[in-house]
Design goal:
Length: about 500
């Protein structure tokens, strides 16, 4: 999809092969004859639309694809009360416009930038332009790779022209948003790929491909290298699968020389059966998406490279398949991680934290100024937050706040849960240093975070590294009614990219 900016109404409505379909976003109080696109219409068409609004007040849930007397197609979409319109609603409106266009098989759209401006986003219209372009891309995505095309072909929007009358300098922001949207969708492609086709090896080659395309140094460590590094966590979880574990290392070092890097760590479990603690059948089928943290890290780095951000960023993705077999790790096994700490495996289904333990230790070795890990870690995070926000934990309140705010701005939401040392009691091991799950079924997302903390915490004499943990299990797939297609959401590529651009 191509997103372009135009400064005049006539131009914005006549791009594409035929005339683009103008979109009238209408708030309850809005009169359609005050809309920017209205001026461009013929006298008859104007009369028709005024009459239309008289007979059909355009309310929040309403959308009307109309053919005007001149033959021009328009979309009239209600977005509710003016007083309640805000950035969150603007984001949903952007997705909804594309969703409706796809349903109506409309290929070319013209939208009015001002329709999306609200009291809480008007200060930073560059960011709004970027966010809109990203949201258009996200809504224009569907995973159809494995399906025979419909006879008429798939319905995707080809062009969106954004009319910007008053602001300058938004073209670049739209372009940036387009790139971020593309990388979000690329992450979704990886996550949506069935487990049989997305192995640790394949995930690693995708990273190599990103490196080749965008100038990122990518190294893939195999089992022998992992053994050399004494990464007993990753090797332990990987034991049960005939697909061998990999450790993906991405280095994008375009920041000032000597500036400490930000290290991103992503859980790359390409399929999570639960291992010998096999998952029940209703919760196993989506587990090909258990590498979504990894794909998010990979494609956030791709986005940052494409945006030529001048920062030092390292990505680490431990990639394994968690399978039950004669060679699997067992409940009760005690694994020794890279830093020497031992993990008592109470449940082989709490595998993500085990592989991340080794990755976090590796992250420490990069002397980072911040470590952010992203993982589909716990069902508990979903119980706590539903499907609309990932859980965020941090050792730095300031950094956490920045994440929450950035998420709010770009529509990639995170919400905090506590990281209190008292919770450490819950994961004390009996026969190992730490147990890989809590003593009871309560607060599982916190147990997971507290577990990871043990591997990034300073040991005696070391200085603390600011750390953020994002349990993205809630955002693996979208909630209904948020105008995203089934499968992966691509979270938190948008959040990471926007955060790191400025951090
Ligand atoms: N990958 C799962 C968590 C998950 C669940 C992600 C649902 C997305 C949707 C993780 O490896 C897991 O199995 N976690 C267990 C931990 C428990 C055994 C302590 C869980 O949450 O039940
Ligand atoms: Mn699991
Ligand atoms: Zn898992």
């Amino acid at each position: 999809m191509e997103i372009t900016l135009s400064k005049t109404i006539s131009k914005s409505m006549s791009i594409g092969r035929q005339a683009s379909t103008p979109v009238f976003l209408i708030k309850d109080e809005d009169r359609i004859d005050r809309h920017e696109f209205f001026k461009f219409l013929s006298v008859e068409d104007k009369k028709y639309l005024i009459n239309f609004q008289k007979n059909f007040p355009v309310k929040k849930e309403h959308s009307h694809p109309l053919v005007l007397p001149s033959g021009l197609k328009v979309l009239v979409i209600g977005i509710g009360e003016k007083a309640k319109f805000n950035n969150r609603r603007a984001i949903m409106a952007a997705r909804r416009v594309v969703a409706i266009a796809r349903r109506e098989r409309i290929r070319d759209l013209a939208v009015n930038f001002n329709d999306f401006v609200a009291k809480d986003n008007r200060e930073n219209q560059k960011l709004l332009a970027e966010v809109l372009a990203t949201q258009f891309q996200m809504a224009n995505y569907e995973f159809v790779k494995y399906k025979t095309p419909q006879a008429e072909g798939w319905s995707f929007v080809q062009t969106i022209d954004v009319l910007v009358l008053k602001q300058n300098g938004l073209a670049e922001a739209l372009k940036a948003g387009e790139i971020i949207g593309e990388e979000i969708n690329n992450a979704r492609n990886l996550s949506n790929t069935p487990g049989g086709d997305m192995t640790p090896q394949v995930l690693a080659s995708e990273a190599v491909e990103i490196g080749r395309k965008w100038g990122v140094k990518v190294t893939v460590l195999d089992e022998n290298a992992l053994a050399g590094l004494k990464m007993g966590g990753i090797l332990g979880v990987g034991k049960g699968s005939s697909e061998r574990p990999k450790f993906i290392l991405m280095e994008y070092l375009k920041g000032p020389r000597g500036e400490k890097p930000v290290v991103l760590v992503g859980k790359g479990v390409t399929f999570d059966t639960g291992g010998l603690n096999l998952k029940p059948d209703n919760s196993i089928y989506e587990m090909h998406m258990d590498m979504s943290g990894g794909s998010a890290v990979m494609h956030a780095i791709a986005a940052l490279a494409r945006l030529k951000v001048n920062k030092n960023i390292v990505g680490l993705v431990p990639a394994v398949e968690n399978m039950p077999s004669g060679s699997s790790y067992h409940p009760g096994d005690v694994l020794t991680t890279m830093n020497g700490k031992t993990i008592e495996v109470l449940n082989t289904d709490a595998e993500g934290r085990i592989i991340l333990a080794d990755a976090l230790e590796y992250a420490k070795k990069c002397k980072p100024r911040l470590v952010v890990d992203v993982a589909t870690l716990t069902g508990s995070a979903m119980s706590a937050l539903g499907q609309r926000a990932s859980a965020i934990f941090s050792t730095s309140e300031k950094v956490q706040e920045r994440f929450v705010e950035t998420g709010e701005a770009v529509g990639d939401f995170v919400w905090p849960l506590p990281l209190w040392e008292e919770y450490e009691e819950d994961i004390k091991g009996t026969f190992g240093d730490v147990a890989n799950m809590g003593k009871n079924r309560y607060g599982g997302a916190i147990s997971g975070a507290i577990f990871l903390w043990q591997f990034i915490k300073p040991n005696n004499g070391e200085t603390a590294i600011p750390w953020v943990h994002i349990d993205m299990a809630p955002r693996t797939t979208p909630a209904e009614s948020e105008f995203l297609s089934k499968g992966s959401t691509g979270a938190p590529v948008g959040l990471l990219t926007e955060f790191l651009k400025k951090f």
